[in-house]
Design a protein that fits this description.
Elements lengths: L1 H10 L1 H6 L7 E5 L4 H13 L2 E5 L12 E5 L4 H10 L4 E5 L2 H8 L17 H14 L4 E8 L5 E7 L7 E7 L6 H17 L4 H9 E6 L4 H9 L52 H12 L4 E9 L3 E4 L11 H19 L4 E4 H4 L7 H7 L4 E7 L14 H21 L3
Parallel strand pairs: 7-8, 7-9, 9-12, 10-11
Antiparallel strand pairs: 1-3, 1-4, 2-3, 5-6, 6-8, 10-12
Length: 417
């Protein structure tokens, strides 16, 4: 499909200019051993365009920390030479990014319409939100909580049996545009809710007693752009005053230690924090909705990829949350549940120490609003495919993640506050 898109793009010069060819691009994994080797990576990032996958900025690179990054095809030899010269151990995770992109679409499902086992574009997801609500009026309703920068409606699904005074769990997917497995999970979750209600006792109890607010795609404009122009796009698509660089990292744009650790004030950076907290229409819509429903929302779950982690606050500070012991034991048990199906191993803990410090994230923000059960999932994998997880892994990834989500939701139900 991507090969086809590139061919189509080549037909017109302007489209071709916008459609980068990923042919020959490589993704490297390195493990810098000391400050000197970290400096080499900083130097590398200063002389060429380096797309950091893990961690998501060169400023977060530390000795003994695994680093995954992508470089342009014509720079790969230069990069390998520099790494060898500096004695930095490295491996090539993805040898040809275009081939990995093409290989993503390996689903056996051949349909132009929506499917839970393939990656769906935004128009397909938007139509699905209307269909699933229309087909399950007793369990699902759809509302619009705002508009994106480019004017697209932001759809929210409320999933649960109608009832009064119900507490709720808020879950979102697709903060970062290129993390496609994240978007797939929210759709899968809603499917499981409606298909197993009345059959699976755990799901039935949860939906009878709780509502789930599901935001299937937070960063819709960015997601559309990953389908039309640049599969590796991460940020929103808003214009930045005084800069030719577009977009803000929506998960650095909330008022939780805003623009301090692990966020950049440069509009060209992939972790740009924005001009102010909630400067992005998408994060503002999400934050406004949660603020309006603070009395009922008792847990916040946000789904990202990749690296197989279950994180909780804090990421903007090394301080531990007041209910650290409780959050840690929930994360431990939920990770165990997740691993019980396909033996997928997750690491869990507070964001800052478990991966890296990052300010302005939605889980910290929700926690600071008083939502004491706040978690970030980083789904499969650990780097073999990175952001290009093949469609054949959607089902197993979503199945195992659902086990962890069910565990957390049950815990929340039993510990309402």
């Amino acid at each position: 499909m991507w090969a086809l898109l590139v061919l189509i793009g080549a037909a017109s010069v302007s489209a071709h200019l916008q459609n980068p060819s990923f042919d020959g691009q490589k993704v490297f994994r390195v493990l810098p051993q000391n400050d000197e080797q970290v400096e080499t990576l900083n130097f590398l990032a200063s002389i060429m365009e380096v797309d950091f996958w893990q961690p998501d900025s060169v400023t977060l690179v530390r000795p003994k920390t695994q680093v995954d990054f992508r470089v342009e095809a014509e720079k790969t030899f230069e990069v390998e030479d520099l790494l060898k010269e500096s004695g930095i151990e490295y491996e090539v995770l993805i040898d040809n990014l275009q081939a990995a992109m093409d290989a993503q679409f390996d689903s056996k499902v051949r349909t132009a319409s929506h499917s839970y086992e393939k990656y769906n574009d935004w128009d397909t997801i938007a139509a699905w939100t209307a269909d699933i609500a229309a087909q399950n009026p007793d369990l699902v309703s759809r509302s619009v909580i705002g508009k994106t920068y480019e004017g697209r409606p932001i759809y929210l699904l409320k999933v649960g049996k109608r009832g009064s005074n119900k507490k709720a769990i808020f879950m979102d997917c697709g903060f970062h545009a290129r993390e496609w497995i994240s978007h797939a999970f929210c759709q899968w979750f809603v499917k499981e809710a409606v298909e197993t209600y009345g059959k699976d006792t755990a799901i039935t109890t949860l939906l009878n007693k709780l509502d789930f607010y599901v935001l299937p795609v937070v960063n819709i404009d960015g997601y559309v752009y990953t389908w039309t122009n640049d599969r590796m796009w991460r940020k929103t698509r808003s214009k930045n005053a005084g800069s030719i660089c577009l977009g803000t990292d929506p998960n650095r744009n909330l008022n939780a230690g805003w623009c301090t650790l692990g966020a950049s004030n440069s509009p060209c950076a992939s972790t740009y924090c924005g001009s102010a907290p909630e400067s992005e229409k998408e994060t503002k819509a999400l934050a406004d909705f949660i603020r309006e429903h603070l009395s009922t929302i008792k847990a916040y779950l946000t789904i990202h990829s990749y690296s197989q982690l279950l994180l909780f606050p804090y990421s903007y500070t090394y301080n531990l949350p007041s209910n650290y012991e409780e959050l840690n034991s929930i994360a431990k048990a939920a990770s165990k549940e997740l691993a019980s199906l396909h033996n997928t191993k997750y690491t869990y803990g507070p964001g800052a120490t478990t991966i890296y410090p990052a300010a302005g994230g939605s889980d910290d923000w929700a926690y600071d609003q008083g939502i004491k059960y706040s978690f970030t999932f980083e789904l499969r994998d650990t780097g073999r495919y990175g952001f290009l997880l093949p469609e054949s892994q959607i089902k197993p990834t979503c199945e195992e993640t659902l086990l962890a989500i069910k565990y957390i939701a049950n815990y929340v139900l039993e510990h309402l506050y």
